Amino acid sequence: MATSLAAVNQLLASGRYHTILSIIKGFRNGVVYGSKIRFPHALVMTLLFKGGPIKDQVQAILEATYTHAKNLATFVFTYKTLTALLCEIESKPREYHSFIAAFIGGYLVFGKYNKINEQINLYLLSRVLYGLVRMFVEKGYIPSPPEGKTFPWFGAIIWGLVLWQFEHHQHTLQPSLQSSMSYLYHDSNKWDNFKNFLIYNR
């Protein structure tokens, strides 16, 4: 056993098969990271907002965790495999390889509609837009530094838009956001005794 472990360690340290091993480790990291992110989120959201038998709650938590981990691992595997192939074809890495590989992986993995993919895609959309603005500033397309403080305006516009949408076009928002906002802004208008005023919602 010790001899075989030493042989594996020697292979890993040698640098041989680095591309293939990095794809395998990327898949592993996708499983671990997806599980770490989704399990506590699913646990908290299920305990706070979903009723029903404990067995159904546990099943919902495990299914959400499995889906997130599987999809992230599959995407990492696909992305790393495709970037390696493109690099091999062109003899060196190029900037557009990452876009092509992620585009294909995104279509195959995160293009299948389910609640987990919807949440991940929406999470990334906000980060991408924010990152693009910063990139445009760095490249000089947007003046830098902008005059005055910009973050307060960013917060004001985002919150102004989302509450306007919620109050007047609620159906256009993601269901989980509708639920959260209903709890905060509409359910707080309803009570008829001390218990459902302060101790529980309804």
UniProtKB/TrEMBL annotation:
Pfam families: Tim17. GO terms for cellular component: peroxisomal membrane. This is Peroxisomal membrane protein 4.
